[in-house]
Amino acid sequence: MTNNIELIIRRPVYQQEDIDRYYDYAEPDKSISRSVKNKYKNFKITSCLKKSLPILDWLPNYQWRNDLLGDIAAGITVAVMHIPQGMAYAMLGNVPPVVGININQENFKNTNSSLLINIQESNTSQYSPLEVATVVTFGVAIIQLIMYVLRLGLISSLLSDALVSGFTTGAAVHVFTSQIKDLLGLELIKRRGVLKVIYELMAQGLGNFVGSFFSCMPFTASLSRSLVQTAVGGKTQLASLVSCFLLLFVLLWIGPLLEPLPRCVLASIIVVALKGMFLQVKDLIKFFKLSASDAAVWIATFLTVIILDVEYGLLVGAIFCLLKLIMLSMKPYTCKLAVVPGTELYLDTNRYHKTVEIPGVQMFHYCGGLNFATKLHFKKQLVQAAGVDPLKKSSNSYKSESKEVIPDDTKTLQVLIIDFSALIHMDPAGVATVRGIIQDYIKIGVYVYLAGCSGPVFEMIRKCNSVEKVTTVFMIFPTVNDAVNYARNENVISSASISTWPTYQQIYDQNSSISRL
To answer: For this UniProt entry, which residues form the secretion signal (predicted)?
Structure first.
């Protein structure tokens, strides 16, 4: 806390129209042609090639003296891991173990090491497992390349950490149970089981496309080998290139020596590799402490993967994530504001209990988007914070005209200030809702001011008023403090309220225990 620093500001009280007029406000050009021009203004084919083929970027700038030894050591280490793990993962896909080593030959195109994720298939099909795997690899390549062209990497943003953790942990259980038969030498009935992101799609798509012509299985990232590569000093893709050359040597000359390796050994390699994935169960405790909704996503995804299947688990997890986003967006954070004594700060009264309410003024803070889906929540929370329902008040006024005595416990409210400084979006339905609120409160003698509207929000309000040709005046201020001082200086508040409205200095003196915040 900086007790020896004070902030003193002297300026006029502004409305939003004053700011626009004095400081030359102009709405940005949002035309398609302008957007395309801005996006590709600095476009260079060399830059595009460097992003698509990272080797063109890092190889010319490669620091041979500092990075070469680390990359060679990392490549050798990862190659040693590739041999048993690749063979084990090939067995997991029910194809010859040598296929697992072939997969890694395509991996130098990628930015990460590879991990085989596939499913157990029955041998009763008219096609051999290797033939099926080859076709699947080609299909995966086409899908990944299409996703790269359409820039669908943003889909990964819908996969939360809780979903990924629960999904991979559940998948680890599936893989572990599939290896019990080989660990124990049992004959069991086989059953069906089954990151820059946009450039990973291209790299893996090309790798799978080429690999499909050499009887390879689909590959993707391997967390274990990526961690090992980093831990032993790997810094660039040269480490992956070294690893690929060593694996080529194994395929050509050492492969036959590994042929008699027992299946139980390969199964044990798979189970040991799952250790880190099983330890992700600890994430559930973390998610429970941080967010109950994230914990629910984790549990739902994990249980669905185990009870039903892997693809169903991913679907259920994605649905839970979308539902979470919808619920959060439909019920954004709102609060009632009050002034910090001696300052121009306005804080949440539920969290800051020594703030002071200004007589005759209620301030409401809204954080989120105001649209057709949230307008009812916004109106409900606003009325609750204001303490006055304008529709009921109008009804009471009508009854009072018929000489029916109606108690008026809301007569002190004269100004309602809505803080939109955290409003991220407003659609026409939101503008209509705010307009209706202003009209309803004006009927009962309460002024409604808006504060802190961003440029896009202000433009939407002005556009809706222009198109719909409405006469409702929106009083918009750049800050809550401008709105408060405008209400006071323009005598919007009754003289009785002004007489009981303490000055900042009086409030500051009466609350010396919290002065100099």
So the answer is: none
